[in-house]
């Protein structure tokens, strides 16, 4: 039986690596394997940003991938947490009787809204800042 709360918290905490998809669909899910590579590239960009500094062009291109992957994990947590019980059971537990949802998925959705919004806004701000800095350098300013 696939629990909605477990799936929502996995999506929030480890969704950038695709662990929530492994929980729901197994290791043969092809969408699962699209998650780790951009996340690891983004983590490498974060490492370069911390060690080399803000003027590293590679970090400027790869670090936003991490923010986008964190935001997509939070979005999955929101979708899972706010899905109706009937729809969840029809999709993930077709043979099981409908179990009522407690507060675990709702709390995951609230936390995902906070953390995912923060990650997305930070990614947009960082990307816009680097874009305008590079535009000013190219213009000779």
TrEMBL record:
Keywords: Membrane, Transmembrane, Transmembrane helix. The keyword Transmembrane applies. It comes from the Bacteria. The keyword Transmembrane applies. The chain crosses the membrane at residues 31-49, 61-82, 102-126. This is TM2 domain-containing protein. It comes from Inhella proteolytica.
């Amino acid at each position: 039986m696939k629990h909605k709360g477990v799936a929502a918290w996995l999506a929030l905490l480890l969704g950038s690596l695709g662990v929530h998809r492994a929980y729901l669909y197994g290791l043969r899910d092809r969408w699962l394997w699209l998650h780790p590579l951009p996340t690891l590239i983004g983590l490498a960009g974060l490492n370069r940003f911390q060690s080399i500094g803000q003027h590293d062009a590679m970090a400027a291109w790869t670090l936003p991938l991490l923010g986008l992957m964190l935001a997509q994990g939070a979005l999955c947590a929101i979708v899972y947490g706010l899905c109706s019980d009937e729809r969840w059971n029809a999709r993930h537990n077709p043979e099981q009787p409908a179990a009522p949802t407690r507060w675990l998925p709702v709390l995951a959705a609230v936390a995902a809204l906070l953390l995912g919004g923060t990650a997305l806004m930070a990614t947009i701000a960082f990307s816009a800042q680097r874009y305008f800095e590079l535009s000013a350098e190219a213009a000779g300013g």
